[in-house]
Amino acid sequence: MASNASLDEPDDHQQSEQTEIILLDDDTEQEIGAVSGCSPPVPAVGDLVSLQNFQIDDTNDTERPRGEEAMNFRVVDRAIHYSIVDADDDDEGLTTEVLLYVVSKEEWAVRRQRGK
């Protein structure tokens, strides 16, 4: 049986892939929350996302409802940006920024009704 070990990169030159996922309100484009990690799953359009998995930016003084329903959103659009970090360094890596444009579940239902 043939081995594809020769196709793999050497262990001393592994590339790291860091992904940052940012939730944005679809109407205002205001950041709702963010999370980063090494190759996390990226939600698709129509997926339900929960703020329980995101860091919430509380820099403003507005009250934010914390109920279970208020923390769930539907993805209506997304943009993915790729960049190479430290291309001249041995620890070069790929950075991926994913912008998820989201609406509340109620707004999602209204938009789906209008679309039919």
> Strand portion, in percent?
35-45%
Largest β-sheet summary: 6 strands, mixed
Instruction: Provide the structure class.
Output: mainly beta
Shape: elongated
Radius of gyration: 19 Å
Question: Care to describe what's here?
Answer:
This protein is mostly beta strands. It has a single domain, classed as Ubiquitin-like (UB roll) (Roll), CATH 3.10.20. It contains one helix and six strands. The chain has a six-stranded mixed beta sheet with strand order 3-5-6-1-2-4. The longest helix is centred in the last third of the chain and has 11 residues. The radius of gyration is 19 Å and the shape is elongated.
Summarize the structure.
The chain is mainly beta and 116 residues long. The protein has one helix at 105-115; strands at residues 16-25, 31-38, 48-50, 55-56, 72-85, 93-104.
Characteristics:
116 residues; mainly beta; Ubiquitin-like (UB roll); 6-stranded mixed beta sheet; 1 helix; 6 strands; 9% helix; 42% strand; disordered N terminus
Topology:
Layout: E1 16-25, E2 31-38, E3 48-50, E4 55-56, E5 72-85, E6 93-104, H1 105-115
Parallel strand pairs: 1-6
Antiparallel strand pairs: 1-2, 2-4, 3-5, 5-6
